[in-house]
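so my prof wants the structure for this chain in the tokens format not the other one, which i didnt know existed until like an hour ago. anyway here's the sequence
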Amino acid sequence: MSNGPKLVTIFGGSGFIGRYIAQRMAKEGWRVRVAVRRPNEALFVKTYGDVGQVEPMFANIRDENSILAAIRGADAVVNCVGILNETSRQKFTELQTNGAAQIARIANECGVKTLVHFSAIGADINSDSKYQKSKAMGEELVKASFKNAVILRPSIVFGSEDQFFNRFAGMAKISPVIPLVGAETKFQPVYVDDLASAAVKGVLGEAKRGIYELGGPEEASFKDLITMLLKIIRRKRIIINIPFLAASIQGSILDSLQKLSFGIFTNNILTKDQVISLKKDNVISKSKMGFKNLDIEPTAMEVILDEYLYRHRPYGQYTELTEAARELDN
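here's what i got, hopefully its the right format
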């Protein structure tokens, strides 16, 4: 056994959640191996630690040999790989079920001590949503191969690189109307760095095995979240609730366009599967372990959102100065 720093392999370590975990593990003094499909696009992770401490390397979870190469020699593994919608090349079952299973199996065979696997609230093997079903099936296969796995199920994740608040803020900049599917569906947004803290607890062996559902301190409907967003970015927009039936038809049409275009058009607008997921609340279950079991106090949205959403205001960082000047003129 080496007496040097321990090594963690993070699959998807350059992504939204993975990069925060990589930073925290580097601060813990670990060597960090960031396993991604395009290492040349993940060179920024090298700045998270000392020279040579954090290194990107090639890994494709469809390829068993590349998984083995990425895991070999690691003391811990974190799997952050996941997609929100399918494309012609990326499928839910392939990545979130089969890929997750391969990582867990190979990690066990390589003698890895701890495994942290990211799933999602709503994971249900009986769900009509392919996304939620693939997440649940992945969980089962991970547990079958790696008995002591720590599985984290977050609600919607927010942070400066998020694709939720930033997406709707961008929409509000160009459209007078904000259409919502499932306006009354409830969410429990969770701060990305709190998730990273939870993952680190798992890597360090400070978390019991099992499933943790992780949400922030506030529950809010989809409509309430967008209303809050509009207030933060100082924009008045009309919020319209799109009925599920109409949304399902729209999603089906867009899905068909993606298939007929042979991948030229990617449906990042609205899929039929997303409509199915939006019919159920995305909040933590009281019967599952959560942040409290990890001794982590989740961060409130109001503490963070202003820090990065200001850029979507009419005058960006100068909005408050502009408003103050107008008040003086009046």
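also thought this was worth mentioning. The first strand starts at residue 7 and ends at 11.
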